[in-house]
Amino acid sequence: MRAIIYSIDYEKRYVYIRENRRLIRLLLSHKIASIFLPILNSGMLIDVDTKCVHRYLHKVKTFKQVISLKPYRMLYDIDILRLDMQAFMEDIKHFVFLDFEMSMPSYKHKGYFQSEIIQFGLVVTDHMFTPLYESSHYLYDQHKHPLTERTKKFLKLDQETYDQQAMPYALLYETMDYIKKTYQPKWVVWGKNDIQVLKDSFQIHQKSPLLESTDFIDMLKLHKDYYHLKDDLGLLKAYQMYYKDTVSQSHDALDDAKMTMHITKAFMKLMQAHRRYLWNTY
């Protein structure tokens, strides 16, 4: 829907447009309103995707463009943002696809619980997604607590196997330190939970932080921004968007890191195809 803004009710989050001498209300969600209401004014040209509630009321799903006409100025263009996203990704020389499995509280636990990393999986690639190095290990938590039944069930892991294969946290820290110094990569995760549990681990084990927030790429967030998704997208569902083969999520850190790698590779191909489409269109 492409239209000129007639008026705005900032309190109720309505944008009014005229259609055949009738006023149509466009309702903005709280999240969309927080982003776009500060830049919207009467007389601006907007291009939006909407869902019809009834004839004179639509819910805005996505803003595609916001244009000030006097003077003419492009305030927002989703295609330009997508091109910027692709340019950023194509500038990266090395990626590390990283995933953690974490400890979980017992079924009877109440109150706060500090999750810790008990397995990591990572794959280092070049910009063409050629694997250069991979590593995966179980890790002891700080106090070497036995795994809870919930953790064992979720990971399909028994205590004996974990005890035999688990390594000290220092292995993860030293591995990441080596990779950082050798490749100067961007660290790609699916969702912010992995970023947070890694930051927590530095404090728990009294280690200097190895990474800054700018070192990470949250591939889930990129998908939500690129496709303008309202809700989170699961790792497996994202994989199935791009690939037809039937897979299940094993909740193994290395398998999930590799799945993130394949999603990123397909996402890059899609962005390249979209760029070619825009060039041919405009």
| Second rung of CATH, namely the architecture of the largest domain | 2-Layer Sandwich
Helix share, percent: 25-40%
Assign the CATH topology of the largest domain.
Nucleotidyltransferase, domain 5
How many separate helices? 9
In the CATH hierarchy, what is the class of the largest domain? Answer: Alpha Beta
Quote the beta fraction.
25-35%
The biggest sheet amounts to:
5 strands, mixed, barrel
| Distance separating the two termini | 19 Å
Uncertain stretches of 5 or more adjacent residues: none
Strand order of the largest sheet: 1-2-3-5-4
Given the C-alpha coordinates, what overall shape results? elongated
CA-atom Rg in angstroms:
23 Å
Counted up, domains total: 2
Mean pLDDT: 93
- Which homologous superfamily in CATH is the superfamily of the largest domain? Ribonuclease H-like superfamily/Ribonuclease H
